[in-house]
Give the backbone structure.
Amino acid sequence: MQRRTFLTTAGVGVTAGLAGCLVDDGNGGNGGNGGNGGNGNGNDTADGNGNGGAGSDITVGIIYSTGGLGDDSFNDMANAGIERAVEDFGISYKDAEPDAPADMNQMQRNFAGDEEIDLVCCIGFDHATDLEENAAEFSDQQFVLVDAVVEADNVANYTFREHEGSFQVGHLAGLLTTTDYAHGGGETNTDETVVGFVGGQETALIDRFEAGYIAGVRHADDSIETPSAYAGSWNDPSRGQEIASGMYDDGADVVYHAAGGTGGGVFQAAQSAGRFAIGVDDDQSISAEDFSDVIVASMVKRVDNAVYDSVEAVVNDEFESGMNDLGLDDDGSVSATIGQDFEGELPEDIVDALEESRQAIIDGEIDVPDTTDDL
Amino acid sequence: MSGDGSKGSSEDGGWRERGGATLDRLVDASAAERVAISLGSLVFALVVGAVLVFVSGFVAECSSPFIYLPGLGYGCYNPLEMYWTILDGAFGSFTDLGQTLLQTTLLLFTGLSVAVAFRAGLFNIGTQGQMVLGALATAMTVLTVGEFVPDTLLGSLVVIPVGIVVGGFVGGVWGMIPGLMKAYANAHEVITTIMLNFVAAGVAYWLVQVHIGDLASDSVQTEPIPGVARLPASIDGSRFSLIALVGALAIAIGIALLYSRTVIGYDLRTSGIQEAAAEYGGVDARRNVVTSMTLSGVLGGIAGAIYVTMVQYRWQAGIPPLGFDGIAVSILAGNNPIGVIPAALLFGTLKTGSVAVDISLGIPNELVEVLRGLIILFIAMPEFFRLLGKHYGFGSEPVATDGGERR
């Protein structure tokens, strides 16, 4: 960290070209630094300025997943990352929103074949199969894939250990439902101990969320009921509301969703039932602020950092292919983030218990399952 | 133009008469006149679309507005630029052209599928479902058969036709179901085909997710089909295959000939349009309803087969709504198999062009969709009034005995 600070400071002072080199050198430790929000940002802005025009001729093509922009979640997170890169490095970007996975192939090819574009960011696992072929065909293009893995020399993969973060919010939900607690727009029902899970489409990825969550709930108390259901869609809030309402009616105190835009309906249901909900991907107490009085926490997955870091690597001309498997220990790449209205308002013993389980997961003392089969 | 049918004032003998006269003229319009009306409507739709895009630009937010009008504020969207981008995106390079032709080929199949049913007086909304199942059947077939054939041209000549036949067969069976329900249980085909779309999508999704899919992948999809089963790409950078387009054009011409030159075609047309008259003439109208829906389903299934072997190279949940676009294509073409060709080209252009708009302009894709809707609306309107007029006996010729076709 100290070395990095030194280099950056020096870099700003020296001529633009030299600054570029120096910053490049210092950047080895930069990937891990991504989670470091404000601090990392400040420095990076300086980098961008130091580089002058060098960074600004980079163009990124970004293709979202089918949930699309405006989900206050996964895709908006990716967009936040690229917007931050625009601010910090002066890059420009083109984006595309596929209506269906079938559109992804052509969009990838459009961007990959575009002379201007230096990096193609593919957001979401539906990109994987097409990218396998396109990465081979466009071997000069650099790609980033979030949430899946394509093994190629020109693809940088970012996957997250969502089950670890889900374990944490599950732990929180389990502790809450066994506690008499009221705050914001919700209160717990002390008669029953039930916490729910709502998934988008039934895929291995979302199964990972569910597995971690249920394991976390059981870590709090083995006897808690954990109903779970899938909406079959990433952008069907009314279906999400329907499912979650049913769960709240059955006595659920907390419902956790991993369903993209469908999750908006879960929050709605929580508000009308006067119970709690847990958001996903982004800190949804901020991104879906209307519901911040019931969003007790969010399982934040820093897709924005993945995008930002990969763009930064290209700006610094040190793109690296391969795997980035990010979990609780990687500077908050995955974390259980308490909602803004609940910060400091949760019972002390719950907060302590969460910190304990976090450390235990990082230390490997708790083995978090990544499929519901392993529960 | 279209509006005249309902417009008019009390002078000149009242709107009824004038409307009637307009309907007469529409019903009696020759093929050339109808093409002219369609082109005029297209231009009109483009103008209205331009105004709409321009106006929406004033309520949108953007970083670099293209125009400032005092009193109105900043306008974000330049409609001329949008049209240029659509054209450039659809025809600007060989790759773009290939992409446009690829969409056109698929729309030709789905458009023909809808048109075939329409010709028999049946409204097949189920092309989408027939396509989804046909696509899945083709994918599974070529995945299975592909293992047993050599990876050569000869292998392709076996695998691809087999895949297409199986896809067409499954689509045909799926189309036959609403046909049977219509013919023997009097269930309205609009309802049954719509509902069968959901059944098809659900069955396919479940099959792929739980049983026959690529379980290693997070996506709900089958394994990619082998190279031997892929239609050879004709243009660099696009998966467009000339073979498929030529096939589609041949089928369009074949269907046109079927209806205009053969007894079967004549029977199919008449039994749909005037069941009683056809029965009187010794035609089994019920069987013809089933035949028409099956044929429609076969074409839908082939659309799915082409989609898998030319475009996606696998089956994946979330097949684009080509079947529904086919309805628009068919309406635009006046349900004429030959008319489907330019209609499919127009929609293929808009489809490919709208991707370019999405990527390179700030104009939301939804506005391009609105434009597509406007085009259908404006072009279909004269046709709608023409059909309406014909139905109520306007025009100078009788209807049912010529098999419902007007030339």
Q: What stands out?
A: The CA atoms of residues 267 and 283 of chain B lie 6 Å apart. The two ends of chain B are 20 Å apart (CA to CA).
